[in-house]
Amino acid sequence: MRSIVNGKMYNTETATLVYTDCRWNRFGEMKYYRKRNGEFFRCFHAHDEEEEFPCGKDDVSDENDPTRIERELKETLERENRVALYIELFGEPEE
Question: What CA–CA distance (Å, rounded) separates 75 from 77?
């Protein structure tokens, strides 16, 4: 999937898939990617569709704001107790 949102290119073929939230909702899953520049973005993949859809494309809110997505991913990994992946992506937090 390639998409331009707010003047930025988002490409799932050149980005690294870092996490798939299968429990996002009953219709599909949220996939989190990291671009080569370190920026995170996410796409929704519906269970009954072949393609992914970028989040925030039709929004005027901060839905696709990289800082918000990074914070959301951190919260998700904490909630899911994915310690190793959290450390791999964001470094080890303070004790």
Answer: 6
- Among candidate residues 47, 51, 20, the one with its CA nearest the CA of residue 33: 20
For the chain, what is the domain count? 1
pTM to 2 decimal places = 0.76
**Residue 44 domain-assigned (yes or no):** yes
The range of the structural domain enclosing residue 15 comes to 2-90
Question: Residues 86, 87, 93, 95: is their CA dihedral positive or negative?
Answer: positive
| Between 57 and 53, residue with greater pLDDT | 53
In a domain, 95, yes or no: no
pLDDT digits (tens, 9 = 90+) for 30-47: 889 999 999 998 887 776
